[in-house]
Write a structure and sequence with these properties.
Strand order of the largest sheet of chain B: 2-1-3
Largest interface: A-B, 15 and 15 residues
Number of strands of chain B: 3
Number of helices of chain A: 11
Strand content of chain A: under 5%
Number of strands of chain A: 0
Shape of chain B: flat
Strand content of chain B: 15-25%
Radius of gyration of chain B: 21 Å
Structural class of chain B: alpha+beta
Radius of gyration of chain A: 18 Å
Oligomer: heterodimer
Distance between the termini of chain B: 54 Å
Structural class of chain A: mainly alpha
Largest sheet of chain B: 3 strands, antiparallel
Helix content of chain B: 10-25%
Largest sheet of chain A: none
Chain lengths: 262, 101
């Protein structure tokens, strides 16, 4: 299959599809990263607090890398993309938008579901015909692996502790699973990306993800919500109100003076 | 005051393969595997790291400070130190030729 050694080799519908993909990847990580950062100072234990804060920095770094690629493709610069857009211009899945509500079970389950999806996706992108994207995927995979390990270790321990803890974890799983399925919402970019060998089809990734998460959830004593229906809309800019609230908070300083030099 | 949190693990950090593991601090965790996961962000987020060890604090057997006089040297033991010797000229000449170890 033809390889795209540089971003400039992308033309027409393929180029548009890559832009769409990069928005989805970058926006998921930025918004998820912001949610992780909201645990700073609030996590149940100091060590957990530091871990979430560091992972927030990792995820924001990943989003910055995707935004830099977007910028190279003619989109606005990373700061503008993160801080200068309105909710409807974002392409993140609703999973990242869910408020933390100081609910540790929810955030740990969400982290596990989200980063499992990220791992499946990055692993697939390592073989992308778009060379710079494959290189980036290989670079980001180490941090992603840690995030997954963190989420997995927590749910296995919570799942095997008290009955109350197990019930809270199950409730969190039942609530977040339909949103996690929304990470694989198909878009019009699917076909051109698959044709060019740049990224796999979303439903293919979903299958890989389902077979990756199920054994761990079962190990933790949980029931997999097999009949759950995906919450979609995020990939076309339809988001829960929570995203607008998050952005108001995240963009507060930037909006005071978007032209300020830092 | 008794420590009411999780058990303590001592953390040892290795900067590169072959280098010694250096004690960098301690961490609370419910078990050893979780201690490794949490120690990674606590102690390996700023400096290079290729490997971490965690050891339950109870596993460490230590001397008492009240006995620290056992380490005092009653007599001159400078012969144990490398600087305690004067290097013969012939050896120094060998060094300068860049003899391989």
């Amino acid at each position: 299959m033809k390889r795209f050694e540089a971003l400039d080799d992308l033309k027409g519908a393929t180029r548009d599809a890559v832009v769409d993909l990069l928005y989805r990847l970058g926006d998921d990580d930025l918004i998820m990263g912001h949610r992780d950062s909201e645990w700073t100072g609030l996590a149940p234990i100091l060590e957990g607090d530091i871990a979430f804060s560091s992972m927030a920095q990792d995820k924001m770094g990943h989003s910055q890398a995707y935004y830099q690629m977007l910028h190279a493709l003619g989109e606005p610069d990373p700061d503008k993309l993160a801080f200068g857009r309105k909710a409807r211009q974002f392409r993140c899945a609703a999973l990242a938008c869910l408020p933390n509500d100081r609910d540790w079970a929810l955030c740990i389950i969400r982290q596990f579901l989200y980063d499992s999806a990220g791992m499946v996706r990055l692993t697939a992108l390592c073989d992308s015909t778009l060379t710079p994207l494959g290189q980036l995927a290989r670079k980001l995979r180490g941090e992603k692996k840690y995030h997954l390990l963190h989420g997995r270790s927590w749910i296995l321990r919570i799942g095997h502790s008290t009955r109350e803890a197990g019930e809270k974890l199950q409730a969190a799983l039942d609530r977040s699973y339909p949103f996690a399925l929304g990470l694989f919402e198909p878009t019009e970019a699917d076909e051109p990306l698959v044709q060019a060998g740049i990224a796999p089809r979303e439903d293919e990734l979903r299958k890989q993800w389902e077979s990756a998460v199920a054994p761990v959830l079962i190990d933790a004593g949980l029931r997999v919500p097999e009949t759950a229906v995906a919450v979609t809309g995020g990939r076309s800019g339809r988001h829960p109100e929570a995203l607008a609230e998050l952005l108001k908070n995240m963009q507060m300083v930037y909006s005071l003076d978007p032209t300020a030099k830092w | 005051m008794p420590d009411t949190q999780w058990p303590i693990f001592e953390v040892f950090h290795q900067q590169a393969r072959g280098e010694p593991h250096v004690h960098v601090g301690s961490i609370h965790a419910p078990d050893a595997e979780m201690a490794l996961i949490l120690a990674k962000e606590q102690f390996a987020r700023r400096q290079a790291c290729v490997n971490l060890w965690v050891v339950p604090v109870e596993a460490i057997v230590a001397t008492g400070y009240e006995d620290s006089d056992i380490f005092d040297r009653a007599t001159d033991k400078s012969y144990r130190e490398s600087w305690g010797y004067t290097t013969p000229k012939t050896v120094r000449a060998g060094d300068q030729k860049g003899s391989k170890p």
